Amino acid sequence: MTINQNDTDFNQKENDMNQKGINLNQNGIDINEHVPKREPQRQRYFMSRCKELVQAKERELGRKLTFHDQTFGCQMNFKDSEKLNGILEEIGYVPIDSEDADFVYYNTCTVRENANIRVYGRLGTLKTYKKKNPQMIIAMCGCMMQEEEEVQKVKDVYQFVDIVFGTHNIFKLAELLYECLTSRARIFDVWEKTDLIIEDLPSDRKLRFKAGVNIMFGCNNFCSYCIVPYVRGRERSRKPEDIVAEVERLAREGVVEVMLLGQNVNSYGKNLEHPVSFAQLLQMVEKVEGIERIRFMTSHPKDLSDELIEVMAASKKICRHLHLPVQSGSTHLLKLMNRHYTKEQYLELVQKLREAMPDLSLTTDIIVGFPGETEEDFQETLDIVRKAEYDSAFTFLYSKRSGTPAAKMEGQVPDAVAYERFGRLLKVVGETARERNARLLGKTELVLAEEIDEKDASMITGRLSNNNVVHFKADTSVIGKIVPVVLEEAKGFYYIGRLSDG
Ligand code: SAH
Ligand code: SF4
Ligand code: F3S
Description:
The chain is an alpha/beta fold. It has helices at residues 12-21, 41-61, 75-91, 113-132, 148-157, 173-183, 228-232, 240-252, 278-286, 306-314, 331-336, 343-356, 375-388, 415-438; strands at 3-4, 66-71, 94-95, 103-108, 137-142, 163-165, 187-189, 196-197, 210-214, 216-217, 236-237, 257-261, 293-297, 321-323, 361-368, 392-397, 444-452, 459-464, 469-473, 482-490, 494-499. Helix 6 links the parallel strand 6 (163-165) and strand 7. Mean pLDDT is 92; it is low at 1-30.
């Protein structure tokens, strides 16, 4: 059940925190009395307290205080970082590109082992910066910090890390920072779970015309290889009226494209007090004036409804792209993965989607080397890639995550075998992507111009409704606009195009 924080009293743990964290001000008045108990008022209070401290520090140093974030992982984490950055900016910190900042946080991912290794690899460099600037505050948060052994490691080995929090309490950043700034003690605050969804806190956005919007948090699926349900908790949906209000606000601020975010958007709304389906939510968002494109991520094949296909097909705003992770083409492995569909059911679904939307672009996630994967299983995966005709695929080598059921399964595949299969898979994915890509050659498509091309500053990079990328010559005035572009060259995973005169 979703509990609105406004109706909830604080639990004992938080009361304890207040007792030890906040005490007397310069006049000897117990400021605990003035700390609001409800959210988001409480965090607003701490933001303004932190702001006073930051301003005092600025006067002392004769310069602005700065912050920097390193964000790893999926769109959920990037969205969380926007919220954290919104809070930091409200407090008065200025974002900079370098890690040589007054406040640095790492928002971590733990979905695969190499994600963890990358984080620890980088963390060492922060120590050097902190030596130079002992006032520097270093924070760690995100999915890795939901794992006890990782928190312990940070406690013991990375003693220069000042603040550690998890995925469930990112809204508390201002409070934790205030505690750290006033006590200079190390702060560890990781919650095992939560029912809370805190609305109306600041959020920063990288792009002015495109925004991600959380529609739900957590995951209930427990795919046998996946750590996400353990580190993100149970599924919680935001109320549709809160989502629509946020999208309306974004539209007023000039946003034309929204990406609705959830680990399994197809099960949105099932546990709300007044249940609403994802398809119904899409229809509500579609009504928001000013929003021209709607995307969403991620869809679990087992929950994709006919209602959703109908709504998508009838919509002018919902983009012609579906990310539909298949993970494997082997029904036997899909069962071991706890995915709840067979190869045939998945392909039937693809067929239904293609009939309803012939111009739909389909992308996927695939894991190679899941425990017990035989050459025959792998051939089934190659077969499904050819049959589903993906526009592109994210391919992953299976990574053992302790705590998940798959970690204990028999038949772990040797690295060399998995690597070899991975290479073959990439080739087939590349072939189907190139074939799909060639279909739009010569056509004129509407493109949201997003940024200056990284490789050639005279070009702009934009996206088609189907999420394909195109680079075309134009000046920066088109950025943020939807413009017609002729697709002149198909390059496999992207196009080169030209602005259409017509
Ligand atoms: N909720 C999304 C995906 C979240 S994780 C979904 O269900 O599709 C993103 C991708 O990481 C997954 O789709 C999967 O392909 C991959 N992944 C997750 N756990 C993994 C593991 N232990 N090893 C390798 N890849 C993994
Ligand atoms: Fe992980 Fe499966 Fe949930 Fe996706 S649906 S986050 S793969 S458990
Ligand atoms: Fe990683 Fe957490 Fe996303 S584990 S993939 S950042 S939900």
